[in-house]
Each structure stands twice: as structure tokens, then as C-alpha cells.
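Take just one protein record:
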Amino acid sequence: MDFESNSWIGERLCYYPRLFGGVMLTAALLGVSTSYLTGISAPTLPHFLPKLSIFRKKKRGKKRIRVYMDGCFDLMHYGHANAIRQAKELGDELIVGVVSDEEIVANKGPPVLCMEERLALISGLKWVDEVIANAPYAITEDFMNRLFTEHKIDYIIHGDDPCLLPDGTDAYALAKKAGRYKQIKRTEGVSSTDIVGRILSSAKSITQNRSNSSLPSKDDNMNHVHAEEKMSKIDHISSFLPTSRRIVQFSNGKGPGPNARVVYIDGAFDLFHAGHVEILQSARQLGDFLLVGVYTDETISELRGHQYPLMNLHERSLSVLACRYVDEVIIGAPWEVTHDMVTTFNISVVVHGTVSERNSSTGEEHDPYAVPKNMGIFRVIESPKDITTTSVAQRIIANHEIYVKRNNKKEASEKKYYAEKQYVSGD
């Protein structure tokens, strides 16, 4: 422990030890006497003596804990976001490594999203402080030393689900051996494998419905279509169990200031992707507070077909809430922006991007933005990326056999995890 001495008092201690001792003894006797003689107060030590401390401890700032988490983060979902949130709670600064495309191909098969898209998603999360691109899939000794020396990492974080290399070894064995490993709880009810399964089920439904058009009876055909709709919904139904606590964990918990310029943007935000992140960033730059409306499942199904949405309302809302550019979310926003909405939320401007999904059933006869247009507060902004939920899903559908094979392998390991899992406290 480092101390610094008061040079003035140090010199006098050397040259006048008896004088100093006498002063201190007198002060002590006077202090003792007051415990017996009420009404008489002991004089304070002379102002030229230090206040009860000859030595003062040097002030040091508390060391900030830096933690590291890595992953593929392909088909980004709220489970990834919750893992990032938990990791941040174990330190002061969170550095996230995004595994390279080549490493993903070698260890898991082809990624759905390229490195640029995955970097945009991770950088857009509110809990992330730094990002390391092209991180290795396995924590090698060389890379671990780089984390400790160059990036000043204190701990390496991963979920309680196993992460195995192709040879069956633990990808985080070295970090555990070094005593620099911490574990978080996996978010139940979602995984990239699960989402790929939902997309494949939806694709199967679309194909079957198209082939049914050759059936001789129109009524039989429609009945078959409705049956297939019901089965496809069952095939990719979400097992996520939303709680109010989880929503609070993701929320900023702050409203707009009295004179804040509130920007409103709405949409499905299904299969949250890099295009969503960048349009939200553009919208946020137009004001002080970004309010995002997330459509209901029923609205999306009516607009785009029964196979949508791929993610349910609460899953989509959490993905939006996790974005650093978003301040608040309307969970289950109406399709039409009404005058009452504008007044209730004190909306200054309503924005819409140039890239969006086609709406199959409504056409152009009803404009959901008629009110803000009449009020003069509607604005179209250029979408930074030409990407949609459908275009991302089509990447998987185009490589159907590859992803079916990959999913079959992953689903077996996930079933084993759920069969053997134990509760990990704190999430």
C-alpha cells in the first residue's frame, strides 16, 4: 500500500519529538477529563497540526473490469442480446469477438449472415463497448494471451450450454484452466437452430400450398391449405416464455424530456437484421428520443401471409429494445398512425424507410400514414441497406439441404442439453 507523508509534520517530528509528544499528551488528557467534567469542552487540536491523520492514503481509481464474450451471432435474436446483457453485468466494459466467416464454415457450416452484417448487429447492441472482428472459434493459447495483454481482458464469458470443437473438446478449456472464465445462464426458448427450423417449416408450407393449386376441388384445396397453415404454425411455434422482468432488463427505463423531439418509426422487425439496425440509427439521428412501434402477430399475418411472423411479438420487441438507438417500444403498435397516438406520445416526426416488405393483402388503397402526412410531420428516409426479413429467409431456403443437415445435427445436441441441463442462478 502506498502512502504519502506530510513533509511539514515529518520535519518537526525529527527535530522536536519532545514538544510534539507533550502537545499530544496534553490533548489526550484534556479529552479524557471531559468525560468526567460535564459542561467543560476540550479545546480542539491547534490548527497547525494535521487533522487526526499524519499519513494519508493515496487516492486510486477503482480498476475497471473488462470482460470478453465471443460468438458467431448468426441470425441475431434476443437470446444473443440477453447473453450480451448478462456478460456486461459481470464487468464494467464488454468486448465482443465476432467469429470469422471462415471459422464458422470450418466448425458449423455456412453462416446465413456475412461478417459485415453480424458486426452491424453486435455493434448496435446497447451493452457492447468494443468489438473484435474475425475472432477465432476456439480460444487458443495465443489468442487468450492477446486478450489478456493487448485488450486487458480480466475474464472470458460464455453460456452454460457446451461449446464443443469438431474433435469434441471444450472451446473454453484454456480459459477455465487459467481461472479467467465466468459462466452465464443460457436464455431458454430460442436458438439460431430453432429459428432456421422456423424458416424451413415456413418454406415447406409455402411450397405445399402452391402445389395444392392443382387439386380438382376448390373447397378441398382451401381446407387443405388451412390445415397446412395450422400445422406450419405448430411446427415453428415459439417456446419463449416472456416475463415483465425480462422486458425491464432490456428497457432503458427513461421517458423523453419535456422539450424532446420524439421520432416514431414502426414495422414488424421480424428476424431482426442489419437493415433494421441501420434504419433505426438513421431515425434516431432526427431527434432526441426514438419511439418504435412493433406490429402484432395478427397484423403481420394479415399483411404478409400466415407463415409470418417468424418471431412472435415479444421476441421481436426484445430484439428492438436491445438496440442502442431505441429509447422506447410500443409492444403491439397499431397498423395505422392515428392523431391520438401522435398526441399521446408527443410525436414530432413519423418516419418510414425506402426498403420494406411488400404487403400482400392490403395493396395501396389504405395509407397507414395519412394522418401524419396531413399534419406535415411525415418523412421518408433512405434505408442504408437493401435487406429484408424475406431476403434473409431466402438465403436459408436457397441452401435448404445444407441447413436441414446442419439443423438435424444441432437439434440432437440441443435435445441432449435440455435433457441434462441444471438451473444456473442469476440471469
Remarks:
- Residues 303 and 363 are 9 Å apart (CA to CA).
- The chain has a mean pLDDT of 80.
- Residues 400-420 form the longest helix (21 residues).
- DSSP finds 17 helices and twelve strands in the chain.
